[in-house]
Structure formats: C-alpha cells, structure tokens
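Bench log. Compound arrived from synthesis this morning; before running ITC I wanted a structural hypothesis for how magnesium ion sits in the protein. Inputs:
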Amino acid sequence: MWDSPLEYLKGVGPQRAALLAGELGLRTVGDLLQHYPFRYVDRSQFYTVAQAVEGPAEIQLRGTITRLTEAGSGPKKRVVAHFEDATGSLELVWFQGAKWIKSSLPLNEEVVVYGKVTAFQQKRNITHPEVEKWADFRQRPVRGLFPVYSTTEKLTSRGLHARGLAKLIAGAAVHLDAPNVPEWLPENWLRQFNWPVRHEAVRSMHFPADANSLSTARQRLAFEELFLLQMGLQVQKTQRQKANRGRVFDRVGPYFLHFYENELPFELTEAQKRVVREIRQDVRTGFQMNRLLQGDVGSGKTMVAFLSMLLAKDNGTQSCLMAPTEILAQQHYAGLLPYAETMDLQLELLTGSTKTAERNRILADLASGKVDFIVGTHALLEDRVAFSNLGLAIVDEQHRFGVAQRATLWKKSTVPPHMLVMTATPIPRTLAMSAYGDLDCSVIDELPPGRKPIETVHRTDSHRLKVWGFLKQQIALGRQIYLVYPLIEESETLDYKDLMDGYESIRRDFPAPQYAVSIVHGRMKPADKDYEMQRFVRGETQIMVATTVIEVGVNVPNASVMIIENAERFGLSQLHQLRGRVGRGADQSYCILMTGPKLSDDARVRVETMCRTNDGFEIADVDLSLRGPGDLLGTRQSGLLEFKLARISQDQSLVQTAKWCAENLLREDPTLGLPQHQALKKAFTAYARGKFVWSKVG
Ligand code: ADP
Ligand code: MG
C-alpha cells in the first residue's frame, strides 16, 4: 500500500492525484504519509467565554451558536453569529464566504470554536474562527496537538486546504502498520535511544498523543535522514580512497626539518601543530589526501601550507598553491619567497599578468622539474601548465573556486596529487560533517598569541562626521584605513557609482597633500590595481577605498580600521572576512559598520552578531540559522541536505550520533552482509541510488 499511487486512495481520484503530485510532489500513499505537519496547535485546553480575553494566542471554546445575522454592506458586509456558553456570550464574525457560512454553520447544537479573541467597540469577537461540531470533535483520533499541514492555493481551491489534507492523511493512516512501514533500524538502537518503531513514529508525527511522543518520533525520523546521509558519505569516502591510491610521503626530510628547526619565524600554535601532524599522517597512508583546512582569518593557514610543501619536496615532488585573486597570489609569493630562498628552493609566481617570456621560462622549468613550488591564480589551471611531478596541490579560499576548477588540478599528475583545501569561511561543525563528511577536515581553532580582539561598532550616516574625526585621529597615529563598498556584482553600474561618489567625497574630506587615498576595484586593469595596492602596502596612502576584491587574504598589518559602507547589504561571512583585513598588527583595531537608519530583522541580527563576537565559528552558526545550509554551501551537495525533518542547525547532537552510528556500523559490517542488517541495507540502497558520486575535495 505504501508505494501505491495516491489516485486509488479513498477521496483522491485522478484529478486530485495530479494536483497533489504537481503542487507538493506527493505521488504515493507513502509520500502523503510523509507529508508531515509544519506545526501543531494545542487543542487540549478549553476556555469559557468568561475567561476568553483579547490576545494573540488562539483559544478554544465550547458552546452553542444561537443565531445568525448579516450586518453592514459592501466591503463591510459580514455574517455575525451569537455564541454562548454558561458563562456568557461573544460574537463570531465572517467577512467572506457568507453564503457558505449561513448554510453550513450548525445552530443550537454543541460546537467547538477555535480562534483569536479581539475586542471591537467594547465587544469581544472572534473573526473567521474554526467551528466544528462537538460530536465530530470527539471523534478526532487525538485530542491534544492537532496537525497543521502546508498546502497551496491550487489545492485549497479543490478542497485540499489544511483541514482537507488532514482528513485525507487521517484516512490513509489506516495503512500505518508494520508490514507497510517496515522497521529497518537495528532493534538494539531503538532500545538504546528509546525510539518508537517506524510505523508508530510516522503515526505520532500526524497524531501525537502528547508533546513527548511527538518529540521522540521526530527524533527517530530525523535520525534516519541524517544516518542515511552519513552512511552515503562514509561509503563514498571508502570508494574514493580505493580508487585513488596516493603517493606515499613517508620521509620527513632535510627541508622540513631544517626549516622547522632553524627558520620558523615563530612558534606554531598548538592548533597549527595538530594540523601539520594530521597532514603528515594522511600523506603516508598510501591513499590520496583530501583535506579541508578551516581556520579563521589570521589563524596562520599559510604556514601550514608551506610546511606541507616542504614535506612534498622532501619526498621528491613539486607543489602548487592556487589563490583566487592576483593580489592574494602575489602576497603568498612575496611572503614565501624569503623562506624558499634561504633554502635554495625555486619558487615561482604565475598569474594572468605574467609576461610571455617569463611565462615560457616558468613553464619550461616547471615541466623539467626545476621549479619546486609554484604560486598562482587560475592561470595554473591552463592546459599548457604541466608539471614534472606534482605531489601536492593547495587551494586557498576554496569557496572562490568551482568544483570543476579544482578537479583540473587532479589531472596535472598521473597519480593524483594530495589535496589541501583551505578556507577562512568557517563552517559550523555539524554542517561540515554533513556536507563534507566524505572529506577529512582539520580546524585551526586558535589564533597566534598577542592578537587584540577587533572592536566592532555600528554607526548610521548621521554619525559620519564623528567617524571621519576618528579616522583622522587614527591616521595621525600612523595607522591606515580600509573603506569598503558593496559591489556585489562588479558589473552593477549603480554600485559602481556609489563607490566612485564615495571615493570623491573621501578625497574632498581627506585632501592632499596631507592625506593620500588609494582605490581598488574590479574594473581596473590588473597593473593599475596592483600599483594602487602596493602604494597602500608601502604606507604611501593612508586610506584604501575598495570593493570586496580585498576581501580575501590581503595582509597589511598597519591597517587598523575597516569601515564597511552599506553593511546591511553584506552577508555575515563576508562581513567577517572583511573585518579580518584588520587586526593583523600589534595595534588595537576597529571595524565600523555603516548602515542606513532602518534595518531588516535579518540585517539587524547580522550587525549585532558582528558587534558581539570575533569568533568565526560562532558567526557561522548564526549564519547557518539565518540562511540555511543550501545558501551557505552554494549548490554543492545541497540536494543531499534537503531533509523532511532534520535541521542541521538545530539537530547538532543527532548529526553526531548519526555519524557515529554509521562509522561503527560500517566498521562492524562493511558490506552490510549480516542478517540483522538486511532491512537496513535495503533502505540504504534505495536511498543512495544515483545520489552519491564521490566528489573531489572542496
Ligand atoms: P590566514 O589563516 O588568514 O591565511 P596567515 O597565514 O596569513 O593567516 O597568517 C596571518 C599572520 O599571522 C601572518 O602574518 C603570519 O605570519 C602570522 N602567523 C601565523 N602563524 C603564527 C604563529 N604561530 N605565531 C605568530 N604569528 C603567526
Ligand atoms: Mg590566507
């Protein structure tokens, strides 16, 4: 019955079946029974008319309707019913559907009335209440929590409003039994977690006996969804590892050791040490490493990358480090060059603006194996870039690259290189587990010592004079300032005008020769961009007016103020990234979020969150709850994260339990061959069909 088409269910028929499929994607009886309520209303309590006071909550009364009248005319025309119980009376009012109300409302018979009480000209009334005969109400399968189903306008017009759907589902519920809805979770888990069997859980979702049974039913069913996903990810990971034998880096050799012992400019943080250890363990297993490295802005991912590159060198291979922007690639190159030189290693930079002769030399050296490390932009992905022996590919700011672009790196070597993908956009732990569960994840959750937390404030345009005064103070102290405009789409002419207007007015308010202002945006030629950037880096300009091109990676330790214009237009992770441009030196740094006077609810939460905390993971949690996983991750696997019941941001411990259960189960029974796992195997196979194509890192 579970899989039979809805058409044959009593009360449906071909037309409604087509509508249910088109509007809600419900095709089978099973689909309908898994169309869970989106909320419940508590119908366990009755009020008397005397107790019924005006308020926002819906309440329920029991009594009789003694007469009906029509009042008003035109748009004010309404049906008014006189409702009473032993304690008093009030009015029920309908502005629409007069004809239907008049013909169907039961008079002088006991009814249950449900709605919100409002007061109008000293009289209490309930507008558009639900009315049900007491005789029918008593027949309801449960008395407490009533299910409310989501529906659509089209369905409503065919009688499948929330109540109609409820009736249909109540009818279909006779099929909720063990043969139709077989159990597939191992029995001992149900016992351990105290969960109802499957068909009872589905029933409780629709007709909960009480809040507690609803909660355990929901937990059990949400667990199923999360568990199947984790099983898929685990299996996928094992398959990928089998398919991709990796190079074995089993030597920690002279380059790594020399650098570590003699050249390291600072003591690594404990978190950096841990991640380096994790990487070292990965690259010696014989499997290809696929590691995602998350670390907040400024947590020191570059050094971890460089140490890994040395490890690759020690094992006779080349490495590449790919960055999303030219500026960032240049900074990596400039930062790593002194280290490479002291150890006589050849480090090159390849970007879109590398001159032809230089490019040809680099390409030749790369192919012959003379180049040890190459840093670059997308230019590294081009076909003509061929390595002699690529052992490690590192991608910085992974979210800026598409999956296909990253995958190109895999093909640059006959044995796929070890992959290390770095991101400064923290992903909440449970989301990472769900979205990247097939990858290995490392986290640098500690900043280098001595950093002062950035002070963040919110200001509106009316404070602008004061803000400018503050900037002048900071400049007088020798500090530098970023001023960022939202150019979400670099092509948006309006945004571009905002930016240029802003630039002009800054130049007026901070006039030469006392002040010098740089500007960088996406419409500039790379050479001009670079020139302006360099002037700021060298301290020749005090203010950098920019778009989000400076979002990633740029490092100017002397910059101590970040002003974000129209901050309400930025997402949380972008705000956090931008703020990370300051606070890199020893000085106290500031972030000023400029907004208009009025903020939407979401924008207010974003701004308040930024002012409250500097912790990227905390910010990511808020971001997840505001936007949901699909938006946070883009398209990657977000289809896998579409659940009926599970909510990654709220079901954190359930996600962990699911992961733990999947890992243990596969360790105990990798092929799911044991007799007690046959039902589970069947459920998993059905779920995973066509869903899991093992993905490449990131
Ligand atoms: P991100 O993780 O944002 O890429 P970087 O690698 O650019 O961070 O590091 C930020 C700054 O912190 C750099 O100037 C770097 O030299 C410095 N740094 C990194 N690790 C340490 C450490 N363990 N102790 C002190 N400074 C460090
Ligand atoms: Mg970085």
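What the model suggests: The two ends are 42 Å apart (CA to CA). The CA atoms of residues 321 and 375 lie 5 Å apart.
ITC booked for Thursday regardless.
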